[in-house]
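Protein record

Derive tokens from sequence
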Amino acid sequence: MGLVDWLVDVWNSLSGWYDDQQNQDKSNAITDLVALLLAVLGIIGSAIWWLARKLRGQRGGDYGNGETPRPSNGPTSPQPMVTMTLEDFQNKLEVRAQEVRAELAASTGTNAERSQSELDELERQLANITVFYEKAWARIVELERLLVREGNDIGVERLQIAREKLERGDYSEADAIFAEIKARDGLAVERSARASYGRGEIAEAQVRWLDAAEHYEEAARLNPTIQYLQTSGVFLRRAGQYEKAIVANTELVKLARAEHGNRDQKTATALSNLSESLRIVGRYSAALPVIQEALGITRQLRPQDEQSLYIQLGNLGLILMGLHRFGEAMAPLEEAVLESERANGRQHPDTARALHNLAAYFNERGKFVEAEPLAREAVDISKAVLGPDHPDTAIRVSILAQILMNTYRPAEAEHLFRDALRITTQSLGEGHPKTAIRKDSLGVCLVSKQLSGVMNFSELAEAEQLHRSALKIGIERFGLDHLETAESRLNLEVVLERMGRHDEAANIRRGVTP
């Protein structure tokens, strides 16, 4: 029997039943009629649901009937059908990391800082591949929505090609379409801004900070919304364009105040971003009142996103340390640890970072008894969560090694400094600025060993080579006048003096490069 015939039979049966009911008490007629209607509607609804299921199954719409499955913890919308696998995503990151390492080897100054930032981000994503795969999945969904919205006049066929490529993690066609929209719609300001923002998202997905900053900055110039200005400021900072970042963040604060007032979390976030940009360039006095205002708003509102609070607390502590106001810096750094633990638990990279900052504070103050257990715990968390060979683990190991050296345990410190150098060289490359820092630290440790025992010329010779290598990297990356370069020069001068090579040490002191 067909579905339609079955429904007709059901209807006739119900109608006959209703006719019989007419001979009963009239007071029940209305109730019976309502019941009849509800029954019929329920049957019809069930039939429609059954039909829809049947038809969708024939098209392969159910998972297990031909549709590409989503990541297990990814977005819940079944569209688009992203076909980029976890392995595809990892391969793309590894290829991009190789490109950035090559760029880093050939770059200097701000370009080197930007490449370093990009490489750090790629290493972070590779170390947390599943999390960032799901974020990439969500970004592709948003980009496809933007593409469909803005690309209707591109042509159905080309739009479909761009969508299919996006779903494989290939952004090239979408980027080309956004570029065409931007070029063609110069007078349509909001549409051009959205196209520029879309290009920025593509560059961000590919970890190209300079291109991302350029596109996001253009979007903010065309249409200075809070979202566009905030994203622009973040990526200008990542691209090493610090003064531009300060300008973007200043405009962001003004707009947030105008649209949301002085006691809103959006205003607090804008202030926090501005303070971070000011701190990076060493303008601690200007950054302090900005972060204090941000923190005051956040404390009052206590947002659900507790990350805002512990990030701002850590930023305040670092700014106060930059101003040498150590007596005031300890409280926010300690609170940052507590708030990160409350939000994330103890075994979390953000908690490890907060512990690291507090350990660095105690180390700076000469309170090594307090510093050492914090530093050891930060190392343990980083190794457990990020892995023993992660660049962030090398940072945590280095501060512990410094504490051990400051407590006259150079032999223990040497082992840790060598481990940190190994991790950094392995993950970031021989010519990376952070590798230079690790070489300098190990060289200083080797020299300090000579001050408390019999002079070991082989260790002094190793220290000399470490400092010369660090100095070479510093000159290539940042030039002669950079702070890191100056520190490497001083370290090399010290080791040469210790070896009795006073003329060579004098040349280094006068700025003669080796």
Summary: The chain has 23 helices and no strands. The first helix runs from residue 3 to 21. The radius of gyration is 31 Å. The chain has a mean pLDDT of 80.
